[in-house]
Specification:
This protein has 582 residues and is α+β, with helices and mostly antiparallel strands. It folds into 3 domains: 2-163, BirA Bifunctional Protein, domain 2, CATH 3.30.930; 191-276, no CATH class; 297-571, no CATH class. It is built from 20 helices and 9 strands. It has helices at 11-19, 52-64, 92-105, 148-163, 181-189, 196-208, 214-223, 260-263, 269-276, 297-316, 321-341, 344-357, 373-385, 392-418, 422-455, 459-472, 477-482, 486-498, 503-513, 522-533, and strands at residues 2-3, 6-8, 31-35, 76-82, 119-123, 128-134, 227-232, 238-244, 258-259. Strands 1, 2, 3, 4, 5 and 6 form a 6-stranded antiparallel sheet that branches. A 3-stranded antiparallel sheet has the order 7-8-9. A hairpin with a 4-residue loop joins strand 5 and strand 6 (128-134). Helix 6 crosses helix 7 and helix 10 (297-316) runs antiparallel to helix 13.
């Protein structure tokens, strides 16, 4: 059950909409279900003799009784209350109880207060009502409605439990401000799929992703084509900013401006400076370059980001809440950077993932002293490297990064859930779902090529790698050898051995880096970890025979079952125990 409080200045205009047909003829049987005094509130929906003007005059009477200079400019209080999709339809009597409880909880009309504000509850659909009140009490005073939105949300949680409805996540006042109903209506009339507020929020967030300093942030904003207006102090210093969407104007023909703080709590200029002042961003992330490393700049930037994202995942599993909160902000920037530079095949899902995760980056846990320069540098590197192709090394490196980002968002879900951050945990979970979809698309070509290469390996070689997996990962070996990605894992171990690595040692390192319990596909995670740790290409060359021998036919795909006798104690590595970093 979702309440959405706003204020306005025209009682008649709001009632005219509520009792009207709606913008798409969606309103049916508009009528009152409850009011401040049923015998005094006329109902134009059910009483043929009642008019909207009569109802307006009754509601506005305490306002009009005040001298004009004492009347509040925004005297109309509006609160739609909607049940969640899938909930049962409440009766009029149940909606009447909901209305009475919410006006009581918000301070509009407390039980037993004969001098409270006048209000009505209008129903014109099965799943919601509209509460309308005028913000002058019968005694001429203003109602005490401090934090009425929070109090309405809290009351709705109680109503949900008592009425057997879906219990939605409680808010904590760290969410971005939602578009008003007027903004949504204006966007619909203009044929936009989202409101200017939402478009501007995403644009500002993307301009900030990986920005090295304030100048770069404002330069990126200008490059998006937005209207940008800085607030300059007499000293010449910038003390604020606001943005507007080109073509978005009010009734006076002026641009509709939004300051950063109106878009999201962390997009005000002081908050942005706090993020930028945490330390300079490295132009090149700290990772040793290997001679002959393959791939262009987008692929290298994604490999660097994979390494840094793994460290962020570790921070989210640690005990330092401030560091974890800082890493979440960095993960949000990294997702924004990847979404902006993604190939067309994954751009939509990654954009949705970034939008969802934005909510997971904000909570009441502050991160002023924590250092997230590494992950912000990774985002900066991805932006600088430019757009990635959906094929070749770029495509493989993108899949490598997305495989890790799925685990990072799952770690974020656990971190928020452990601290009671319900909305943030739900947002991270939603981001994980979009990332999974993007990963499946990005990984299709490189994983299929690796699987084909693995199937061509000689049976003795495949069996040897099966024994390596059984010795290194005894509890999950049977599952791994049955996964579709086993052939790709065998190909990766073979490629690592050709590159001079010890396959067993490299596999132990990949398993020991982080737990695998949250992985949807263990073999996929291991493939990408092995390729990153072993500095192997993210794609494979065309299949060829091993050591000059002809590759066996596809009938040789079967692998020898894992040995029934347990491996030696030294080889039994708990996958949840992290090995020392190398």
């Amino acid at each position: 059950m979702v309440p959405d409080i706003s204020t306005g200045s025209r009682t008649y205009g709001l009632l005219n909409y509520l009792y009207g047909p709606g913008r798409r003829e969606e309103h049916t049987d508009p009528h009152l279900v409850e009011s401040w005094m049923p015998g005094l509130a006329p109902d134009p929906g059910r009483d043929p003799a009642a008019t909207l003007k009569q109802l307006t005059d009754r509601l506005d009477l305490p306002v009009l009784a005040l001298p004009k200079n004492r009347r509040p400019a925004q005297h109309v209080w509006h609160c739609p209350v909607r049940t969640a999709p899938g909930d049962r339809h409440l009766t009029d009597a149940e909606w009447a109880e909901v209305a009475r409880r919410i006006v009581h909880a918000t301070g509009i009309a407390e039980d037993g207060d004969e001098k409270a504000c006048r209000w009505v509850a209008v129903r014109h659909a099965d799943d919601h009502i509209h509460l309308v009140a005028t913000l002058v009490r019968e005694d001429g005073r203003r109602p005490r409605r401090h934090q009425d939105g929070i109090r309405a949300q809290a009351e709705c949680r109680k109503i949900e439990a008592e009425f057997g409805l879906q219990i939605l996540n409680a808010g904590d006042r760290t969410a971005a401000q939602r578009p008003t109903s007027a903004e949504r209506s204006k966007a619909e009339r203009a044929g936009r799929t989202e409101t200017p507020r939402e478009t501007l929020r995403e644009s500002v967030r993307q301009a900030l992703a990986g920005a090295s300093d304030e100048d770069e942030f404002f330069r990126r904003l200008a490059e998006t084509g937005l209207r940008v207006d800085k607030r300059i102090a007499p000293s010449g210093d910038t003390i604020g900013y606001k943005v507007a969407l080109p073509g978005d104007r009010n009734r006076d023909g002026e641009p509709v401006w939004f300051s950063g703080s109106k878009l999201a709590p962390d997009l005000s200029l002081p908050k942005i400076r706090q993020r930028l002042d945490a330390g300079p961003i490295d132009d090149e992330p700290a990772r040793d370059r290997q001679p002959g490393e393959r791939g262009g700049r987008p692929a290298r930037a994604r490999r660097d980001a994979t390494h840094v994202a793994e460290r962020a995942e570790s921070a989210l599993s640690g005990d330092d809440s401030e560091d974890a909160a800082a890493q979440l902000v960095g993960v949000g920037e990294l997702l924004d950077a990847v979404a902006q530079t993604a190939p067309a095949s994954t751009r939509k899902e990654l954009g949705e993932a970034a939008r969802a995760f934005e909510r997971a980056t904000r909570s009441h846990i502050r991160a002023e002293r924590a250092d997230n320069r590494a992950i912000r540098s990774a985002a900066h590197g991805i932006i600088r490297a430019g757009n990635a192709l959906g094929r070749g090394e770029d495509g493989g490196a993108t899949a490598m990064l997305l495989s890790t980002m799925v685990l990072v968002t799952i770690a974020a879900v656990r971190w928020h859930s452990a601290r009671g951050h319900a909305q943030q945990a739900a947002a991270a979970q939603q981001a994980a779902q979009h990332l999974r979809a993007a990963y499946r698309t990005a990984a299709t070509v490189p994983m299929n090529a690796m699987r084909e290469q693995g199937r061509r390996l000689p049976a003795p070689v495949r069996n040897r790698y099966a024994d390596t997996v059984a010795a290194t990962l005894p509890d999950q070996a049977d599952h791994v050898l049955r996964e579709p990605g086993w052939d790709a894992l065998a190909a990766t171990l073979d490629q690592a051995e050709r590159a001079g690595h010890d396959p067993a040692a490299l596999l132990k390192e990949a398993i020991g880096w982080r737990e695998l319990d949250t992985a949807d596909n263990v073999t996929d995670v291991l493939v990408w970890r092995l390729r990153r740790l072993g500095n192997l290409p993210a794609t494979v060359p065309p299949p060829r025979a091993r050591d000059g021998r002809k590759a066996p036919p596809t009938e040789a795909r079967a692998v020898r079952p894992a040995p029934s006798a347990p491996p030696s104690h030294a080889a039994q590595l708990d996958p949840r125990m992290r090995s020392p970093r190398r």
